[in-house]
Amino acid sequence: MSQSAQTVSVVKMYAPREQIYARAANGVYANWRWACVWLTQLIFYGLPWLSWNGRQAVLFDLAARKFYLFGIVLWPQDLIYLALLLIIAAFSLFLFTAVAGRVWCGFSCPQTVYTEIFMWFERKIEGERSARMRLDRQPWSIAKFSRKASKHAAWGLFALWTGFTLVAYFTPARTLALEAATLALGPWQSFWILFYGFATYGNAGWLREQVCRYMCPYARFQSSMFDPDTLIVSYDQKRGEPRNALAKATAKNLASGSCIDCSLCVQVCPTGIDIRNGLQSDCIGCAACVDACNSVMDKIGAARGLIRFTTENALRNNLAPKQIARRVLRPRVLIYTGILVLVMSAFWVSLLTRTPLKMDVIRDRGAMGREVEEGMIENAFRLQIMSTDEHPHRYKISVTGIEGISLVTQDEVQLQGAESRAVPVTVHIPKDKGKAGSNTVTFGLQAQDDVQLQVKEKAVFFVPR
């Protein structure tokens, strides 16, 4: 074969990105989505400024290794609660997905929430969908540059505020604000504010649907949690097809096919899909297409619900809403609910009944046990005491388990609220008491002003052979 006859074919692994100009949707689901935006952001931006017992209500103080959650103080030893919270979050997501598909993605996911906020800025500065498309087609001018610069400035300021707020959960917000105002931020604080700010700016301003399509793994395994009775955003093909152009949308035509092919459902979609092609992994379940289609149906005098939250079984078998509701309590939903209730119950019972006092006893391994004056056997220990009570207490230290055992060092210790302290103690027993080798002893810690505030911990006293 001659060189001129050879052909070269290029196979593209990824389709080029097409710019999506999402149209604003109005309706019931849009109102719910904005309610979720307001609720989540009021909590996120407001919590760092709430005070509790003279300190920040929610603070993860990594330097002091203490986590404050309103009236609860957690130490690194309490990481079991973090594990339980992650399990609760996972099974909650499984439950919501089994019942209502990607409702989390469409209404409460941070990527969705911040994309919605950034799109609001975009609409206010550059205009609605058609105006933004015209602006992007225009050659660069002072007017176009000023609009684009204003939009990105608004995005940047909001992103920096978001980064500042996130860091304020780890550094007291008022201290952080004062340091920022006086340009005295530390290098790590500055880095994380800029890092999270840039991540917010990039994900919500530029990447948007690309995060949902390629970066988020949830879209890839969501189908494993779906079944024919899962509520998803669906297009009713039986009712919508064949499609009729708006000019031909007569009462007779609408009886056979209600879709007038206006494409509004595509224009309002933040990921740019056509829901009429069936369920797709890119669909985040925001229901913007439902609001758009319902508004069109109202205008042409047709019944709502051509696009709606429904199930595969309901579309196939023409199930009524009551029949759909009865299918909600199916085995996988009951299993997820049961596990979730058990884990949440265990979490709250453990949290509410935990003692606010912890003590770890660490024996000095440098000296296993030695004989001192007056025929006494001596062991040295370190008591690592942690208090989650935010009030100061004075504690009495005791030790039992061997006849004649006594503390040689201090037997009292003062702890401030939510304080951790290592207390070295030395213990003696008479030479003729205890067996050679290991002996079990018990250390006790008792608050002098609260009989309920006490803890006991076992340790090993070593007698030389």
UniProtKB/TrEMBL annotation:
GO terms for cellular component: plasma membrane. Residues 250-278 form the 4Fe-4S ferredoxin-type domain. Keywords: 4Fe-4S, Electron transport, Iron, Iron-sulfur, Membrane, Metal-binding, Transmembrane, Transmembrane helix, Transport. One of its GO terms (molecular function) is 4 iron, 4 sulfur cluster binding. Coiled coil: none annotated. The chain crosses the membrane at residues 32-50, 81-101, 153-170, 190-207, 333-353. PANTHER family: FERREDOXIN-TYPE PROTEIN NAPH (PTHR30176). This is Cytochrome C oxidase.
